[in-house]
Write a sequence for this structure.
């Protein structure tokens, strides 16, 4: 269970697009939060789901990651919040070179009283608002109510955000990241170039990786055996739905119908692990991660353009063949 505490301090700057020479409007003082703290906290809580955890990294070592370095200095000395916020804004500006990146307000927020994994700690929030909304304000002028439009930050959801919790510093902290803009519009500059983060090697991402491997194998198996791929997809979905843990070494026996398919799975797994890293022997299944993957929707046996058979039982007895007279394929379903 992860909860956000209170806003202790905040700094707001405006960061533009470097390719347009928009520049940065730095701040020299803390932002006054009176009257807006409740709204900002509500926006933060509505924008983040604390399950898909990330961590800072850098190919040459964590200390070479600018965002990690500046945030660490804030954790070490909260009095340098303004200075390090300006450093973060400058770093963000240097990464804002894609032509579709919009000018917007950049918030650096110090949070205290947060709880993560049962431990109370502080955190730093980094938020960028790029989409402005028009609101109507009402005020009294000369004994008449007057409506006037004003532009402001949307309180529905954040376009880009990150919360860095002050835990697991040596591993790159634990981060929750959101990016709700079109991923094709700005080339992932927020997570990849500015923050430079990667997935944590936890149960959630082990489950995601397992589902990715199984999905890829099912798609490959479909080229050799339509029935085999459907049965493997259904067995994968059932396994992840009903099991708390999965022994990766047992997957070939659980998902495959014969020795040829098992050999194909072992070969596919070896290739997958060479590219994406090895699995631990046992994976604790995270249901939220498993339900996000498409393998559970691959249990349909498509018979040309005329029929579809949805396989509900992973142990269904199905045979396929080719009619000698017509040359057409057929399936026999035993029930």
């Amino acid at each position: 269970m992860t909860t956000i505490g209170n806003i202790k301090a905040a700094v707001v700057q405006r960061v533009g697009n470097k390719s347009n020479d928009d520049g940065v409007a730095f701040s020299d003082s803390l932002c006054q939060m009176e009257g807006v703290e409740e709204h900002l906290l509500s926006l933060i809580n509505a924008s983040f789901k604390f399950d898909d955890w990330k961590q800072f990294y850098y190919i040459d070592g964590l200390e070479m990651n600018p965002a990690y370095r500046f945030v660490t200095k804030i954790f070490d000395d909260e009095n340098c919040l303004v200075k390090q916020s300006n450093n973060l804004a400058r770093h963000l500006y240097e990464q804002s070179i894609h032509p579709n990146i919009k000018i917007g307000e950049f918030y650096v927020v110090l949070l205290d009283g947060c709880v993560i994994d049962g431990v109370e700690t502080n955190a730093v929030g980094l938020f960028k608002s790029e989409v402005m909304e028009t609101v109507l304000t009402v005020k009294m002028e000369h004994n008449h109510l007057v409506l006037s439009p004003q532009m402001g930050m949307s309180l529905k959801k954040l376009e880009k955000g990150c919360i860095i919790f002050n835990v697991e510093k040596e591993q790159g902290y634990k981060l929750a990241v959101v990016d709700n803009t079109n991923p094709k519009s700005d080339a992932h500059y927020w997570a990849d170039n500015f923050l430079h983060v990667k997935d944590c090697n936890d149960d959630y991402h082990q489950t995601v990786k397992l589902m990715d491997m199984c999905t890829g194998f099912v798609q490959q198996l479909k080229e050799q055996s339509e029935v085999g791929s459907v049965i493997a997809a259904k067995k994968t979905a059932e396994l992840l739905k009903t099991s708390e843990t999965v022994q990766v070494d047992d997957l070939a026996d659980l998902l495959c119908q014969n020795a040829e398919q098992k050999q194909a799975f072992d070969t596919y797994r070896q290739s997958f692990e060479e590219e994406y890293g090895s699995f631990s022997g046992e994976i604790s299944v995270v249901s939220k991660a498993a339900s996000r993957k498409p393998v559970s929707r691959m249990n349909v046996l498509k018979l040309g353009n005329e029929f579809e058979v949805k396989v509900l039982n992973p142990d269904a007895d199905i045979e396929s063949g080719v009619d000698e007279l017509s040359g057409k394929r057929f399936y026999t379903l035993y029930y």
